[in-house]
């Protein structure tokens, strides 16, 4: 007997969106297309999963957070996951020590989107001033949204996570940093993980479909391509801006 293909739960259609990085224009267009596609496909549940990295690099991080914090389109369940860039932002709110690393990874664009002048990463006083200014400029509902982001989520035979998982560790024994940052050995692993892992974090020109994982970070901030994976019964398909 042939092995049953992986599926989400019965009656559930999942829409998983890759790394946004401040491209609210692409996110708005993607949500509109998801809503249109869902209207043509009745389902008991529609789950909208975002794989993290909403901020940095692109110019409209604030708009992206506002859109996601406002909740999903009508008729959808929202599952927003945390990416390493949201973790960077939250850590900077706690300590200036995170500032230089965050700025090197696109944090200046997020500061600017909240009206905060990016500091000199070598100047502790400027970093502290920027940290305080960001905390004052960050709406409470934006902070609450960032603080409640999940590390991973499972729907049927699919596991959703920002970066990946440590292949040999059970899901309840994963290291939190790996879920946000891992590349190798996760990307190089060819054996089954159990569930099919749907992830972002690692940019590819096209969706990276393997037997054990599906990568959907197509570098939206630079490429203009924000990818959505649709999981509907045995079917997989992609929506792309």
Quick one: how many beta strands?
10
Indicate the multimeric state: single chain
Q: Could you state the order of secondary-structure elements as H and E?
A: EHEHEHHHHHEEHEEEHEE
Number of helices: 9
Low-confidence stretches: none
Strand order of the largest sheet: 3-2-1-9-10
Specify the helix fraction band. Answer: 25-40%
Q: Domain count, please report it.
A: 1
How far is the N terminus from the C terminus? 39 Å
Mean pLDDT value:
97
Shape: globular
The largest sheet, given as strand count, sense and whether it forms a barrel, is: 5 strands, mixed
* Rg, alpha carbons: 18 Å
Note the beta-strand portion: 15-25%
Question: From the helix content, strand content and strand pairing, which structural class follows?
Answer: alpha/beta
Attribute tags:
9 helices, five-stranded mixed β-sheet, globular, 241 residues, 10 strands, alpha/beta
Write the layout of secondary structure elements.
Blueprint lengths: L11 E6 L6 H16 L5 E6 L10 H9 L7 E4 L3 H11 L4 H6 L2 H7 L10 H14 L2 H8 L4 E4 L2 E4 L14 H6 L14 E4 L8 E2 L3 E3 L4 H4 L3 E6 L2 E6 L1
Parallel strand pairs: 1-2, 2-3, 5-6, 6-8
Antiparallel strand pairs: 1-9, 4-5, 7-8, 9-10
Can you summarize this structure?
With 241 residues, this protein is of the alpha/beta class.
Would you kindly provide a written description of the structure presented here, covering whatever features stand out?
The chain is α/β, with parallel strands linked by helices and 241 residues long. It has one domain. Helices cover 34% and strands 19% of the residues. The strands form 2 sheets. The protein has a 5-stranded mixed sheet with strand order 3-2-1-9-10, covered by helices on one side. Helix 2 packs across helix 7. The longest helix has 16 residues. It starts with 11 loop residues before the first strand and ends with a strand. The model has no long low-confidence stretch (mean pLDDT 97).
């Amino acid at each position: 007997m042939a092995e049953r293909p992986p599926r989400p739960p019965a009656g559930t259609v999942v829409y998983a969106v890759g790394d946004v990085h401040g491209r609210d224009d692409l996110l708005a267009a993607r949500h509109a297309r998801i809503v249109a596609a869902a209207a043509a496909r009745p389902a008991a549940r529609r789950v909208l999963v975002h794989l993290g990295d909403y901020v940095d690099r692109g110019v409209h991080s604030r708009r992206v957070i506002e859109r996601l914090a406002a909740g999903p389109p009508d008729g959808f369940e929202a599952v927003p996951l945390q990416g390493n860039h949201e973790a960077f932002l939250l850590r900077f709110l706690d300590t200036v020590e995170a500032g230089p690393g965050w700025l090197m990874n696109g944090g200046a664009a997020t500061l600017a989107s909240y009206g905060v002048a990016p500091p000199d990463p070598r100047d502790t006083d400027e970093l502290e001033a920027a940290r305080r200014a960001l905390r004052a400029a960050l709406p409470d509902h934006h902070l609450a949204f960032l603080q409640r982001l999940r590390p991973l989520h499972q729907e049927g035979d699919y596991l959703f996570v920002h970066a990946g998982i440590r292949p040999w560790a059970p899901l309840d024994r994963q290291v939190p940093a790996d879920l946000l940052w891992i590349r190798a050995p996760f990307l190089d692993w060819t054996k089954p993980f159990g569930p099919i892992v749907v992830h972002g974090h690692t940019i590819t020109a096209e969706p990276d479909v393997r037997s054990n994982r599906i990568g959907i970070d197509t570098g939206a901030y630079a490429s203009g391509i924000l990818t959505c994976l649709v999981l509907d019964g045995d079917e997989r398909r992609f929506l792309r801006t």
